[in-house]
Write the structure tokens for this entry.
Amino acid sequence: MKTTTNEHFPRCVFHDVAQRSPDWYELRKGCITASQAGDWLAEQPECRMTVAEIKEALDEEGIEYKGKTKRDDLLALLPETRRHLSITQLTKNAREKAIYAILGQRADIQPPYEFTVDLNDEPPTSPAQWAVWNGLQQEPEAIKQFQWETEKAIVETGFAKHNEWAAGCSPDGLIAGEPVGYENKAPLPHTHLKYLFDGVLPDAYKVQVHFSMAVTGAKAWWFQSFCPGLPTLRILVERDEYTERIEKGLAEFTEQLQATAKQLELFN
């Protein structure tokens, strides 16, 4: 299997494999991928103490405060060493679910975690499967239009695996000579029109785009929503504070994944 590096994407190694091929599925094992990631990955620990808990801690520290002081003002009086930081239970559950899904890939039997489509077969009748089938059908024309209208060349790539974290992604392409990636979607017409009306990166793909920048080290990522017969939505998304939170979350997730794997091996 051929691997390549790219000076514009210093944080990963690119594996030249076809998406949805046996080698591609094998490379994804042991990694959290863009399709598994969620907004929970960007959540950072924060102080969730109640007013009563903060007042109790202030009393123990001998710090005076007024009886009707607001929570944020009370928290500002409390030394950082006494602030109990935590994440929400929802995020804890999402992390655990992703970890068990990844570790479960070590089993000898595997259920079909995702459906496949055949471009040479009839269009699927399921809207979800049709959306995937249509996206693959429209991809060549979408790339052609992007390159024509932006005068930028798209380089196809396989699976990008981070150098340190247990994370990887499969970009739809990379912009030649730039530290920029490319993601294309071919949604149902009514969904595409909603994207056009909003004129921003759809919430449904916010995590995927920033996750891809975090894994590859890209400075920006093109998002394109393409639907024949309708105007195309094209947005350049740049790295920001949300990308940094995803990066921190990936580092923490990798540590938790490795710790869980080690703990489970004690029972083997």
Observations:
- The longest strand covers residues 180-185.
